[in-house]
């Protein structure tokens, strides 16, 4: 350790000698708003504390200088920093044009300031439109740029601005390992990237022991207790202003209904912010006894407020980043932070389009306490950043270099490449067959491969890999671009990890199996895995009767009985991935034994295996065959023979099918009384035989409020493969959370 410390000191000494023994690094820190100042202030304090190495110039612009947003430049003065220049750069307006004009105004004013300051390096933070103006000005004036928090991923226009600043910046300070990898993937020089953590964490991780009750009482009232109030901070989404205003209105309605003391902060300066303020005033938030609406809270005090809140709600990056340091529950609304790395304290309400969804999220999150998360920092970012600044050699060429990956020569894009069909590799692991298909975005099965499912784990995995490799190669010939692999399999599956936890008895040697890793490694593609019943529900949601339906249930009637539940457009997996095991709903206490070991399950009455069992009993008693039926001596008795016999008038076969249909119908009634879907979809080879029986049982047994449910037969030819494909197509082309 001593050796490396001495080595570091020697390197810094050499850099100082190269830069001139008496030359201090002149650093310009430009801050645009309250949020970026919370990240820049710790760095500014560090620079100020080492005057032998640095000269600090502070430029203030943007919303800092606007009264409507609290004149937050004052907190910079209170921190005892000399503000060299104040630039009024915000053009008042309520649409996207105002942001563009603000950038233009900043570009007009900044050159004069930078000419006077002549900084060696400018520190720019984040992804705001003001920061883009700063980076553009500095780059065009040949001033080195250090960008804080590059490489991160979020929603809206912020992503584009952040990555644009990355391309202009010469040096990068990132907060997470993923962000570092993103910067490298964007062809930035690894030697100029510092993984330091978030500077605000240096203050956060030492903040919780301070006197917080006086701060809470000052902002929320004397009668408020810790963990018994909410902090709300929501900004407009500039790429969908109308929807974000509606979402804010729903959020306020939910907070009013939730009836807890709430601190509401005014939104950022963005297109749509004035409309959000009007919504607050229209609902009387500023005068409501449960609400405190404020333009700004000093960061030191804001830390204490979120650290001891019962919940934080909104779409601010603070919620998914800083608040994790305290384990405070967070409800992240909408798409503004899509793609951010988050701790387990964050609950995403992706489509916050109803008050009930937001209210339900509040009921789930309020008052919980989660483990503290250090995804974004360990409290030592500033020392690392200062050390990084000292290592900068001003005599190195200013022109930045990009580290492009090697590419093959003479590769050009042709019309066939442009017209490739986005597709998925779908894998269906059944009890008998193993199938792989190329499935297009529209649900067309372009090509399908079928083999018998091997009995051993090793043979099965080898065959899956072989078939997938063949299909991926063939995809080029049929002009399909494979986006990923989706796998539908029987048994209980952990879809987050891609692991089959427990298999059905129909598939041997198939428990605790990691499917994702070997297939992803072999094909270099993302892999998703889920239970076959869930996949059938996903197929209906994307391609079938469930398209656009908020709440529905799919029941598969085949060799076994399975299904999937879609609630509020999302698939339900359950706490241990055991939700929607619909075949094991018990409808009789003394019914036939099921393969699961229980008695009286729907599957023991209505599955293909159950019907085959009853058909064999009739055949053994010479009661199966009737006039018009014949069987070869070596032919195996199946459920199909039972159905044929019933159609030809075999009363015993009719009775068995009637009992099976009644058992399935009773199971559906239980489902209706539990999750209250608006649609039940029967899928599988037996669906047409059961649909009328299920409707009859619903009319006889269900509560009147659920009798109006629609019961339909699936029109999908291959729901297992289509569901496996939808695992891929939904997530690679839509969104990632």
UniProtKB/TrEMBL annotation:
Gene3D superfamilies, per database record: 3.30.420.40, Glycogen Phosphorylase B (3.40.50.2000)
Keywords: Allosteric enzyme, ATP-binding, Cytoplasm, Hydrolase, Kinase, Metal-binding, Multifunctional enzyme, Nucleotide-binding, Phosphoprotein, Transferase, Zinc
One GO CC term, this protein: cytosol
InterPro entries: ATPase_NBD, ROK, UDP-GlcNAc_Epase, UDP_GlcNAc_Epimerase_2_dom
GO biological process: UDP-N-acetylglucosamine metabolic process
Residue positions of the active site: 532
Enzyme Commission (EC) number: 2.7.1.60, 3.2.1.183
Subcellular location: Cytoplasm, Cytosol
Main location: cytoplasm
Cleavable signal peptide: none
Residues annotated for Zn(2+) binding in this entry: 584, 594, 596, 601
Residues annotated for an N-acyl-D-mannosamine binding in this entry: 492, 504, 532, 581, 584, 603
GO MF term list: ATP binding; hydrolase activity, hydrolyzing O-glycosyl compounds; metal ion binding; N-acylmannosamine kinase activity; UDP-N-acetylglucosamine 2-epimerase activity
Domain UDP-N-acetylglucosamine 2-epimerase: 53-390
Pathway per the UniProt entry: Amino-sugar metabolism; N-acetylneuraminate biosynthesis
Record field: catalytic activity: an N-acyl-D-mannosamine + ATP = an N-acyl-D-mannosamine 6-phosphate + ADP + H(+); UDP-N-acetyl-alpha-D-glucosamine + H2O = aldehydo-N-acetyl-D-mannosamine + UDP + H(+)
Family per similarity comment: In the C-terminal section; belongs to the ROK (NagC/XylR) family. In the N-terminal section; belongs to the UDP-N-acetylglucosamine 2-epimerase family.
Quaternary assembly: Homodimer. Homotetramer. Homohexamer. The hexameric form exhibits both enzyme activities, whereas the dimeric form only catalyzes the phosphorylation of N-acyl-D-mannosamine.
Protein name as catalogued: Bifunctional UDP-N-acetylglucosamine 2-epimerase/N-acetylmannosamine kinase
Species per Swiss-Prot/TrEMBL record: Calcarius ornatus
């Amino acid at each position: 350790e001593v050796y490396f410390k001495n080595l570091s000191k020697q390197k810094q000494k050499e850099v100082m000698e190269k830069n001139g023994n008496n030359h201090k690094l002149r650093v310009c820190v430009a801050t645009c708003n309250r949020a970026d100042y919370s990240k820049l202030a710790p760095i500014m304090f560090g620079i100020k504390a080492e005057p032998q190495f640095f000269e600090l110039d502070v430029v203030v612009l943007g919303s800092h200088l606007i009264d409507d947003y609290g004149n937050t430049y004052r907190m910079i003065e209170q921190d005892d920093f000399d503000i060299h220049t104040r630039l009024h750069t915000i053009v008042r307006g309520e649409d996207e044009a105002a942001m563009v004009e603000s950038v233009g105004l900043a570009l007009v004013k900044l050159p004069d300031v930078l000419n006077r300051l002549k900084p060696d390096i400018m520190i720019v933070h984040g992804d705001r439109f003001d920061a883009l103006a700063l980076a553009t000005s500095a780059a065009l004036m040949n001033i080195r740029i250090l960008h804080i928090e590059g490489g991160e991923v979020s929603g809206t226009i912020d992503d584009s601005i952040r990555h644009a600043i990355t391309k202009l910046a010469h040096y990068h300070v990132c907060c997470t390992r993923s962000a570092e990898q993103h910067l490298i993937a964007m062809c930035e020089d690894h030697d100029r990237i510092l993984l330091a953590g978030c500077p605000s964490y240096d203050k956060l991780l030492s903040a919780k022991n301070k006197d917080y009750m006086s701060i809470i009482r000052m902002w929320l009232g004397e009668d408020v207790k810790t963990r018994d109030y909410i902090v709300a901070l929501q900004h407009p989404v500039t790429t969908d202003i109308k929807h974000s205003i509606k979402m804010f209105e729903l959020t306020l309605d939910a907070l009013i209904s939730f009836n807890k003391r709430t601190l509401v902060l005014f939104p950022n300066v963005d297109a749509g912010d004035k409309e959000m303020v009007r919504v607050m005033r229209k609902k009387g938030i500023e005068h409501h006894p449960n609400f405190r609406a404020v333009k700004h809270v000093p960061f030191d005090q804001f830390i204490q407020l979120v650290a001891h809140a019962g919940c934080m709600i909104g779409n601010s990056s603070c919620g998914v980043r800083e608040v994790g340091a305290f384990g405070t529950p967070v409800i992240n609304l909408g798409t503004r932070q899509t793609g951010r790395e988050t701790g387990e304290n964050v609950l995403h309400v992706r489509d916050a389009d109803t008050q009930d969804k937001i209210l339900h999220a509040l009921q789930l999150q309020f008052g919980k306490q989660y483990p503290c998360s250090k995804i974004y920092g360990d409290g030592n970012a500033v020392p690392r950043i200062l050390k990084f600044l000292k290592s900068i050699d001003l005599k190195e060429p200013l022109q930045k270099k990009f580290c492009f990956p090697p590419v093959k020569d003479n590769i050009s894009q042709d019309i066939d490449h442009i017209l490739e069909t986005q597709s998925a590799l779908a894998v269906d692991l059944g009890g008998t067959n193993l199938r792989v298909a190329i499935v297009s975005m529209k649900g067309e099965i372009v090509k399908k491969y079928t083999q018998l499912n091997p009995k051993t784990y090793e043979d099965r995995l080898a065959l899956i890999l072989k078939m997938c490799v063949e299909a991926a190669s063939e995809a080029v010939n049929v002009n399909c671009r494979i986006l990923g692999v989706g796998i539908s399999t029987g048994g209980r599956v952990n879809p987050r990890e891609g692991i089959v936890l427990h298999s059905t008895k129909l598939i041997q040697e198939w428990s605790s199996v990691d499917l994702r890793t070997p297939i992803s490694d072999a094909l270099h593609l993302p892999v998703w895995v889920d239970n076959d019943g869930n996949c059938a529900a996903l197929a209906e949601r994307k391609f079938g009767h469930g398209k656009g339906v908020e709440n529905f249930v799919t029941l598969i009637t085949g060799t076994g009985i399975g299904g999937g539940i879609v609630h509020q457009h999302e698939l339900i997996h359950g706490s241990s991935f055991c939700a929607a095991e619909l075949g094991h709903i018990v409808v009789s206490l003394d019914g036939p034994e099921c393969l699961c070991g229980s008695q009286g399950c729907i599957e023991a009455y209505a599955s293909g295996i159950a019907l085959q069992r009853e058909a064999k009993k009739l055949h053994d008693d010479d009661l199966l065959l009737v006039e018009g039926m014949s069987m070869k001596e070596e032919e195996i008795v199946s459920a199909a023979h039972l159905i044929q016999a019933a159609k030809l008038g075999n009363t015993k076969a009719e009775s068995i099918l009637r009992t099976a249909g009644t058992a399935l119908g009773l199971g559906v009634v239980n489902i209706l009384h539990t999750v209250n879907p608006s649609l039940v979809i029967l899928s599988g080879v037996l669906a047409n035989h059961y649909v009328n029986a299920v409707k009859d049982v619903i009319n006889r047994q269900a509560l009147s409020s659920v009798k109006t449910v629609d019961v339909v037969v699936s029109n999908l030819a291959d729901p297992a493969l289509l569901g496996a494909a939808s695992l891929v197509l939904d997530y690679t082309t839509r969104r990632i959370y």
